[in-house]
Amino acid sequence: MAQITIRQVPDEVHRALKAQARAQGKSAEALARSILRRGLFPADRPRPGDLLRSIWKDTDLEGVSFERDRSGIDAASFE
Q1: Which of 21, 23, 46, 72 is most buried, by CB atoms within 10 Å?
Q2: Could you tell me the pTM of the whole model?
Q3: Residue among 24, 47, 19 nearest 34 (CA)
Q4: Positive/negative CA dihedral, 12, 14, 19, 21
């Protein structure tokens, strides 16, 4: 797992992080990891499938069919 160093963290931020971590029974590092994870990957962010579905949600696909191409695949030739 990777490690990072965050420089020039204001004293009040460091104190607040340590106080919250202590209140939650965690280390300051564990709480910082959790805060980063939630900030970068929020639970309510749209997933790719949801975005694709939203593009087509109002489209009338009555009578439309999609045929799968079942033809063989030719191997790549590097000659």
Answers
A1: 21
A2: 0.57
A3: 24
A4: positive
